Amino acid sequence: MSSIGVLFRIVTFGESHGVAIGVVVDGVPAGVAVSEEDVRRELNRRRFCHIPVLNPRCEDEEFQILSGIKDGFTEGTPIAIVIWNKRAISDYYQELWMKPRPNHADLAWYLKFGRFYDHRGGGRSSGRETAARIAAGAIAKAVLRQTIGVEVSSHLVELGGVSISRDDYTFEDVVKAWEKPLPMIDDEAVKGAVDLLIKTATEGDSVGGIGEVLTTEVPPGLGEPVFDKLKADLAKAVFSIGTVVGVEFGLGFRLARMRGSEANDQIVLRGGRPRLETNRVGGLLGGMSVGEPIRFRVAFKPTPSIRKPQRTVDLSKMEETTIVFKGRYDVSTAPKALVAAEAMTAIVLVDHAMRAGLIPRVVKK
Amino acid sequence: MSSIGVLFRIVTFGESHGVAIGVVVDGVPAGVAVSEEDVRRELNRRRFCHIPVLNPRCEDEEFQILSGIKDGFTEGTPIAIVIWNKRAISDYYQELWMKPRPNHADLAWYLKFGRFYDHRGGGRSSGRETAARIAAGAIAKAVLRQTIGVEVSSHLVELGGVSISRDDYTFEDVVKAWEKPLPMIDDEAVKGAVDLLIKTATEGDSVGGIGEVLTTEVPPGLGEPVFDKLKADLAKAVFSIGTVVGVEFGLGFRLARMRGSEANDQIVLRGGRPRLETNRVGGLLGGMSVGEPIRFRVAFKPTPSIRKPQRTVDLSKMEETTIVFKGRYDVSTAPKALVAAEAMTAIVLVDHAMRAGLIPRVVKK
Amino acid sequence: MSSIGVLFRIVTFGESHGVAIGVVVDGVPAGVAVSEEDVRRELNRRRFCHIPVLNPRCEDEEFQILSGIKDGFTEGTPIAIVIWNKRAISDYYQELWMKPRPNHADLAWYLKFGRFYDHRGGGRSSGRETAARIAAGAIAKAVLRQTIGVEVSSHLVELGGVSISRDDYTFEDVVKAWEKPLPMIDDEAVKGAVDLLIKTATEGDSVGGIGEVLTTEVPPGLGEPVFDKLKADLAKAVFSIGTVVGVEFGLGFRLARMRGSEANDQIVLRGGRPRLETNRVGGLLGGMSVGEPIRFRVAFKPTPSIRKPQRTVDLSKMEETTIVFKGRYDVSTAPKALVAAEAMTAIVLVDHAMRAGLIPRVVKK
Amino acid sequence: MSSIGVLFRIVTFGESHGVAIGVVVDGVPAGVAVSEEDVRRELNRRRFCHIPVLNPRCEDEEFQILSGIKDGFTEGTPIAIVIWNKRAISDYYQELWMKPRPNHADLAWYLKFGRFYDHRGGGRSSGRETAARIAAGAIAKAVLRQTIGVEVSSHLVELGGVSISRDDYTFEDVVKAWEKPLPMIDDEAVKGAVDLLIKTATEGDSVGGIGEVLTTEVPPGLGEPVFDKLKADLAKAVFSIGTVVGVEFGLGFRLARMRGSEANDQIVLRGGRPRLETNRVGGLLGGMSVGEPIRFRVAFKPTPSIRKPQRTVDLSKMEETTIVFKGRYDVSTAPKALVAAEAMTAIVLVDHAMRAGLIPRVVKK
Questions:
Q1: Scanning B150, C196, D22, D31, which has the fewest C-beta atoms within 10 Å of its C-beta?
Q2: Residue B97's domain spans which residues?
Q3: Contacting residues for D44 by C-beta, under 8 A, at least 6 apart
Q4: The pTM is what?
């Protein structure tokens, strides 16, 4: 289904080459200041027009807020946002009809929906769908900021194998990384990654990457035992992004190789409250927030569509064939998907803060 | 909340040192053959009594099926299973009152529920809660087997840093690994891991591990775009287990370092249907099953409770203190948690097969 | 929240005097033929322009389908429909600011959302919101017709106290009643009711009514024990319409005054299957369908807004005051609300038919 | 499915003649004082042993609270309650196998679940299932009382056609009515109804009735626009009780026959806040609470099982036959069902008060 969340819930709609995509955000508390500019700013973060191989089309998003906001404040009613599609060029998709691209959602959609799949631009499985999530994320971020004072950001720790070289960054470092061509905290990594992207594009190939989502300190109590743990709902939300193949909290897989005496974050008294001395665990215990920043890493697979010949099956004839993708493609979807992961994080945090009773239904009376 | 699932839904209840734990399985199709023996067999898989450091208490589970089964077949009504708690020794928990164990859920529970937290044995945050999931998983496995013919298994690929050395195992190899002391496909790894567990216990420390859950071929169409992708719901279900800190599908984080041309599974025609030649992606495209086995890895952190002095805060006095855990503990929770991960996988697969219309409400008329 | 349904789910959005209202229909099976004309036809049924006191404004609805339909067939993805608002005259609402109209949702909204309530035209509590439900109902009706072959209709049995005089009508009689000025099966009642509406409007007053929703034979098995009974979900869906104050299935309150021997529908063999001889119960037993038509009645309260002076409290000053509504109003909302009740019925039936496994995810391959 | 509620959620299980029935109450706030006595008191209200024709068996309920309560206070974890079945005499059900009783859920269950239906005592469709709801209702009532200070009660306004003769009763009158043989506010009605019950039993017949559920003043803001209106969720919860065939809020169907000028409750200033002068609407506007008591009426159909010959179909042979019910039956299920309706009301109110943010997750720190 196309909806997620319990008290703060979004539903997205729209196909890549259809009339529009969009989102309805339900359960928004009343009295939160939200502007079109908030939405536009987040949508712009996924454009990366300065690196053309990441976004060959590079168009402005034209969107419209249809409901739920009066005089600059949320009304407590659903906010519907439509993002119009434009100038979609579907021609080169004609020859891909019934020929699923390897590693792409195409195959799953053909097997599930048959000839009703709108394969143009990947239809509903397109990364474009995440623009609707990001618009909703802008609302979620406004709610978080104006209620529990939490900020969410993200950065790339690795792109196509080019890694950042430092481990000692702060939340502010990460926020500032967005002023660079790529959101990496380390200038050398940025340069290496940009070069790699251009080189890879020249070769008609693609790369994946690893991102990290971080928050400022999250008040204790978010997350519900036992199934709706915050880590469980964050993981679900982030894994619902097409390109995500792995999620780890804190040191993640590295924790699995440590002993308890190495892994355990000692609990100390700081500022009059219990704190984790090291926060190796990523800010969640028992799946719930404990007043620490939350931190998790996300693995993005390389873009499936490449300009090299690939083997597939023509499902209309049930015979093997070869395809070469000729449409516009992003040499890596990791940067855009990272923005989507950040948006999903904000959405889940609002939902859980509401469930924990930390966000009132009306923010200012 | 303590429930998960849409059409096939479980709710668990119970505290570690309370009267009982248990589960209600709702949405079970009618006409599935289920016996007490099915439940007992799965519960036994998590006992590991032959490796005492993994289960110092080693007791039989006494359980009772209260409803939903008539003459050996499910009725289509909720199946309630109670697992009685017995001989819980809560004494050594008295001195831990208000002193959260580092890396344990204790801190989160104290911060969220205050003095109402039943900290004895970890209360509801105890790994014991997963026994209820495993009982439900036994029902789910019977449903899968008798409807869409899917089997689920799992194994450890790494325990305390001791890894298996082969990569070319089959589903059957994995199933057979459960006849060994530890479910690892590689005898040398088993020996190394058992030795390590004993040594670690001697030192009063603990270790984590990495498991892998696998299925036989899953029919296409499980998983709902865009938020209820099968990978998203599997990740949520598995991350809802306390000790899990990472999940990756197929090659996971390794995919993030590959190029598209290396990562993409070519689509080939085998047995008259499209197949993934390599299944590096773990059996899901667009988050949906495509007729391939599903495969994902899970990182388990080391057991928080260790016999070494650890720093914490006495929340009743808000002052720093040191604790040494004196109760019984499992030197690694990874093996038990792996069985729980397998159970959660079966539960999610039934739910999604029902949502996809692949399991009728009445299995045999 | 603004969403309803489990597998077939709608979310509505929009305020009466905002940019637009609309709906996203999620969980639609693929392969159902749906056209704009289907939606327009249902939207027109609630216009009643030929009786101006029922719809003083009488405008065409301008709507747009944004997603989910390709080449005339549903894709299995969310269908978003936007209905644009136009020429809303909000002037006369200025003097009603903070002065809730008696019997209107105004008071509840002011108490819950304070100054963030968009009171113009009743904002989101307006009957206009039901247009979005009716658009979704058009989709639901297409699904029902093309899968389980069920039709849904409705009629008024009473308007402002003017009742139909017959009890022996068929489903076809009810369908044909929609060709009359008011959907009543009895010409005399139509005339009496129209006269009454005009007279009541002259007096600046309003009237309520009682409608009945009927279906053709519904296949057995819709409805889930014990809480998601079909009658429970139908009642919820219909009571979610603002003006509804009562619902009764079959003979309803009259059954409560009968003895078992009078009330019980004898079970007889007709056409090779068990049938209810009399269907006094309205087609549901144990809250589930049994192969009979479903029938229930709905009580609509009179329109709250009238042209007579009414007492209220100015919430900005917390003092008593008197208001006279000067805006356009419908002398009875019952006819429009009846169309909404019919739409909600279709929506619930699709959801339950999907839950019962009677509607595949792809209707035609 | 057998669960209901969003934040405060119950799941019931168990068949009438199985091992046990029971309930898991999930989402209970921590810190609420709850005792076994609270549960027993509510269970006793549905016994009516002093009127043997209402409960021929008249046994004490043996129940056990398995989890969620520590030292007399809720822990914030699921409360599981098991009510053991005993001495069930299933013999006379043998001859009813595959012969559905007219007006009973039997037919629906046979059509949906076939031979897997446990028809003994009505299996899961038995009124006995409501005992589990009533146990959960006891928890809900404790929560309401200790948080928002709301009480819920109910009474019969009509039984078998014998009506109460007054209209001017208070909440206290209704509470006191439970000290009488039947919960009717009017002694003459009690006498008439008891006589009627005995006479009807002699004749082997049954009667229905009409009940009313009332609350003390409910704080404003319960109920979510637009689908989860409080009236919608109350109606669903009450209609989920097998015997319910009608629900009306306030004056209900009588409102449908009034003009706006007669029906509208004028809004007046009392005690410094806006109040409804007459509360004809039953305490809800726009489906939300406005600080008034809530009031709705419920129609219960007569008990289907009677000692008169009734026609049915033997589904195993598909031929018509006649049955006479020989088991124990309640001459009217209305009194017991009324207690269940009251319990469901309390459950829905807690859920909505939590959703509205009026009940914290921890009641006392």
A1: C196
A2: 3-355
A3: none
A4: 0.98
